[in-house]
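dumping this here before i forget
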Amino acid sequence: MRFVRPVIIAAVALSLSTFGAHADWFKDETPPANAKPLSVIIKALEDQGYKTITEVSFDDGKWEVEIQQANGKEIEFAIDPVTGKMTRE
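structure:
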C-alpha cells in the first residue's frame, strides 16, 4: 500500500503536466477574438448564390465551407475569419 500511493501521485502529476503542455493543441481550431461572426460569413456566401451549404468547420486558422451546387457538384472555400476573404479550394 505504501508503494501504490506514490505511484498514483506520480501518475497524476505526470498526466497534469502533459495536459498543460498540450493545452494549445486546439488553438488553430478556434476563431480569433477579432473574427467576423460565422453568420456574417454564411450570409456572404448566400448573397453570392451559394444556398446549399453542407459543412462548415474551422481548421488551420480558417473557415472551411463545403457547398453542394444545383448540378450535384461539391465545391469548397477557405475563408479568412477576420477579413472574410474567400479562396476556392
